[in-house]
């Protein structure tokens, strides 16, 4: 454990901010987690990240330990689009949960990752190795995965600073008149149904950019790019402006065309490589269920 005396310039400074100055190679979110988990002590006592330092304080610090994995690897035939020593990009199929929890303890993306990849960062815990972001169970598409702790810290920080590129394609109800638009509406837990998210005054900032790719008689095919990454953001925002996603029975209409969940695909993902600092961007093909339905709409239009 490293011990640090508080320098004069940090007297009266928040504990998390002072640590960031002392350890510039570590992200503030990572250091905050160290504080919250008792890996940072002030005068041998646990403090909050907002604790204001005094000249008499002695800080004790040690890194988080990666917890041993306790899940059984499963061959789920995952598509690994890219892999190196630090990061991987994988394709998550529709209907697959990203990590164990809420009664889903088998055949998750994490189980498949443990089978396909030799190394995964353990910073985010036993049941979320390598996971730095998620997409819904019934959303298909690309996810970036952290194989090293360096990658986990870097990718998490990039997501927090809105530096990653995440482009989705969706099919929504109704005909959107505008060719493009920007939805700015805070998202938080619904006060009427705690299992759902909603646009609410007390929610966190949420920004979605969209543009129209094709209009049909009763539907619109759109592309969305996330500036923020709130839970169910695209689904909530599109329902908020009166164009819920097709087959989204949670935020949209009860009527379902395929009965397989919302028409939403995470098509493109881009990020700065944690080690090389080079920009990396990956694209995926649209899933067959989506394109088959679009083809039928096109035939009906013609």
Describe the structure.
This protein has 302 residues and is of the alpha+beta class. It has 3 domains: 2-61, RNA-binding S4 domain (Structural Genomics Hypothetical 15.5 Kd Protein In mrcA-pckA Intergenic Region, Chain A), CATH 3.10.290; 66-161, Pseudouridine synthase (2-Layer Sandwich); 162-302, Pseudouridine synthase (2-Layer Sandwich). It contains 6 helices and 15 strands. The chain has helices at residues 15-22, 28-36, 109-116, 149-160, 233-240, 288-301, and strands at residues 2-5, 40-42, 45-46, 58-61, 79-83, 87-92, 140-146, 165-173, 180-184, 187-189, 197-199, 207-215, 219-226, 264-272, 279-283. The strands form 3 sheets. Strands 5, 6, 7, 8, 9, 12, 13, 14 and 15 form a 9-stranded mixed β-sheet that branches. Strands 1-4-2-3 form a 4-stranded antiparallel β-sheet. A two-stranded antiparallel sheet has the order 10-11. Helix 1 (15-22) packs across helix 2 (28-36). The mean pLDDT is 91.
Structure characteristics:
Structural Genomics Hypothetical 15.5 Kd Protein In mrcA-pckA Intergenic Region, Chain A, 9-stranded mixed sheet, alpha+beta, Pseudouridine synthase, 302 residues
State the end-to-end CA separation: 70 Å
How many structural domains can be distinguished in the coordinates? 3
- Order of helix and strand elements from N to C terminus: EHHEEEEEHEHEEEEEEHEEH
Number of strands: 15
Rounded Rg: 22 Å
Mean pLDDT: 91
